[in-house]
Amino acid sequence: MALLITPDCISCGACVPECPNEAIFENRGDAEAKGYHVGEDQGDYVIVHDRCTECVGHFDEPQCAAVCPVDNCCIADPAYPETVAVLLAKATLLNPEKVIDPSKVWKDVRDS
Ligand code: SF4
Ligand code: SF4
Fold it and tell me: What is the mean pLDDT of the segment spanning 88-105?
């Protein structure tokens, strides 16, 4: 279902504009104010699992991890594995105005 941001985050902000689902927030308070639940293990910047599709439907790899200057800072959240079908459905629901491409799937999707 989602990636998370580890406490190694240096709050550079590079990931925020790259997310196709607006799933990244500058802090927990901003996310929770919009009604999203944030797990306990994240850094200052957070990813909300309600909106993260692991970039499935949009890109071949998670864009937050691709642009992040810190190694292993944006990683798969073990609490939220989802199938490709579920992630594509979520991408469609979140982005009714965008074309969702079912061929855009990264190698580490956790089909379970
Ligand atoms: S994996 Fe993609 S959808 Fe999820 S937070 Fe990162 S950029 Fe956004
Ligand atoms: S790109 Fe990486 S270091 Fe920068 S805010 Fe995002 S998660 Fe943190």
Answer: 96
Domain extent listing, the chain: 3-94
Q: What is the DSSP string of the chain?
A: --EEE-TT-----TTGGG-TT--EESSHHHHHHTT----TT--SSEE-TTT--TTTTT-SS-HHHHH-SSTT-EEE-TT----HHHHHHHHHHH-TTS---TT---TT----
Position in ligand 2 atom list of the atom nearest CA 11 = 5
Task: Name the one residue in this structure whose structure tokens are 């909106």.
Answer: 51
Nearest protein Cα to ligand 1, atom 1: 54
The domain defined by 3-94 carries CATH number 3.40.50.2020: no
Which residue's CA is the nearest one to ligand 2's atom 1? 68
- Over the stretch 3-58, which tens digit does the pLDDT of each residue have? 999 999 999 999 999 999 999 999 999 999 999 988 778 889 999 999 999 999 99
